[in-house]
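User: Can you help me understand a structure? I only have the sequence.
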Amino acid sequence: MEESNKQTATMKMLAKVMFRLLPIQILLATVGAINGILASYFASNYVGIDAMSAVGLYGPVNQLIMAICTMLMGGSVILCGKYMGRNEQDKLQNVFSVDIAVSTQLSLVFVALFLILGSFDLTGFFTHDRLVRPHFNRYLLGQAIGVLPLMLGNQLSAFLSMENKGTLTTVASLIYIGVNLVLNVLFVKVLRMGALGLALASSLGLWIFFIVQAQYFLSGKSHLKVRTTGLEWKETGEILRVGVPGALNNGYQTARGLIVNWLIEAFVGSMGISAFAAANNLLAAFWAIPAGMLAVSRMMISVSIGEEDRRTLTDVMRVMFRRFVPLMSLISLLLIACAVPMTRIFFRNPAEPVYKMTAWGLRILPLCMPLSVICMHFVCYGQSSGKQGLVHLLSLLDGVVSVAAFSALLIRPLGLNSVYIANVLNGVVSLLVIVAYAWIKKKGFPRNMDELMAIPADFGAPDTERMDLSVRNMGEVITISRRVQDFCREKGVDERRAYLAGLAMEEMAGNIVEHGFEKDKKSHSVDVRVVHKNEDVILRLKDDCEPFDPGERQRLAEGEDPTKNIGLRIVFKTARELEYQNILGMNVLTIRF
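Assistant: Let's start by predicting it. Here is the structure, written out as tokens:
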């Protein structure tokens, strides 16, 4: 009973922390949805339904560009993180420069492609509707101007986070929203530039978004700098290899968008694409809530797996089921209740078919959201824990197969509603796959969270193979360093690694006490965990001081007197892995020997 009460209290505390961080994550996720809402609003109210269809047809193209962005960004950031941890400065700068160069080259390819397709009316494979195609051609020409800042802006956003300048991305995003709104009013409402004006407003806004971020890298203040000569292009292959898994879902959604658009145009007509685009773009702002929930959980999941902390890992998923899913269900019901007034944002005449189709979309699609929260969390858990089979299966089903298949089966009798219902059925299928995967892995129906997650039996360390300590002052640093060495010797760790583990604990904990404790008048402590697992020694230090990246300190130390910061240099050179994260207001440092 005491253990159960302790676990409940721990989960409540975890839920409190996660909900505290949730609003800012939702805000950041919402920024990306604003463009679609603005484009849909001005298209439906000032250009017409055909222009709204053009916006909908461009959706899969945008998904493809975002898939490439995600692939390059994910691969390059992961590699940069590794090289940063190893203090391999030349490789770090090379990956950053190669990523920017490849992003620029691919952007120019898309620019040329859009200009050719739009200028010579070669967009017949997108739509055969003679009224929609001219709008889509002009929309494509306007979007061509924004491809380069879109791709580069996304890359810089990730690298600004590595430079601890994420606030600049938020500022750039808010400026982008304001510029986009003003330009839409000017180009679409005042100058009557139609679909071209819609695209130009977005594209020019993206240039502002890119320039605001780029000025930091051009100022000379950034650690990462673009090199134009001596690039090792072989890193391109490694960037792609590492980045592909994270981009698969965007790629699948590109295929799904093309298939669904074809089905809608063939069996419902361009009016159906307009309604589908309106419903999707409006709900995109509310999809920021599940995205924010996932962002918070992703942080906790990654740290828990890095620490091999079984309890926290399962508690994160319990918070998701017990708090996030009910909250998302309530929001979904509110959206369904507000379907009609939300429809009137885009279409005013209830007698029009496009009005009715949009309203039904806003009644049915919100049902996907609670189911999607579950699927997204399990995909994230699978990515973090190496369950690539589950990740690829869920990504394939959720990304394209389920929605496309159910839409194709139901579209003749149900029309556009079939696409809406297919999205809900897709969530049900994903949930059944999660349960089936756990059933197969555990050879029985999952009875608790541990079994539903199919956590390996050897994940985490038993109490006999771990030690938890706390450091409150500099005097305790030396004592705990000795206890770490004694713990390692007791577990049969060789003398060299035992000494290095103690040295690392003394150096890193001492840095936190010296540089973190004195910066404010608050009470602080360093929570220390030492784990012996599979012959590895894993040290984890967690504190709530101001952000302090030892990797950044190590980079600064490179230009100093080599007799200084010897301990820090030794730790970076001898540790097999060293990973720093600032997460949920906590500095988390994990070191493996």
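Now, to help you interpret it: The two ends are 37 Å apart (CA to CA). Residues 1-25+281-460 form one domain. Let me know which part you'd like to focus on.
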